[in-house]
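Hi U.,

Before I forget, here's the chain from the pilot set. I'm dumping it here mostly so it's searchable later in email.
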Amino acid sequence: MRPLQSDALKKKHRRGRAHSGFTIVELVVVVAIIGLLASMAIPGYQRLVLASKKSERTIVVRNMEEAIFSYLNEHDQQFQWPSGAGTSWTWLDYNPPARWTSTKKAFIPTTWGWPDFSYEPSGDLYYHYYAYGWATPDFAYFYIGTVGDLDANGVFAWYYKYWYRDATGIWYPLWEWTWPTGEE
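Structure:
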């Protein structure tokens, strides 16, 4: 059995015990440290998010190129709409359709020109994609364009990639550019 303690002894024992809890100074220091760590981590996180959004464009453009080349190979190097004398053309309208914003939008497979090609991106898209092509027996070209505002600053970035087929039937990437430079 435990011996009984007097009230005076209990009070003396309580006064010598440390307080449970934190002082306001300790809390302020912890919050300041968390704020400092967050201020270092958030810009890095934002760069990672922007890089992942940029990779969407690379992947979709590459897949669009493959779908266009596949279509041309299956259709004797001609696009889906003949225009006489062995020439043909294609136009894949903006998809997702305009109004351009910095938010993700759904790809609409029934948009003008797209149903003829064997590519449909999965999920929603940040960029808006389109393509145009012209083919003759002697040469052909097509370009793929994108427009988007990944950093949501109100400035749209335009990206173009052009391909050219010479008289020997070999396709070459002619050029690609982004405008304005540094904008995504």
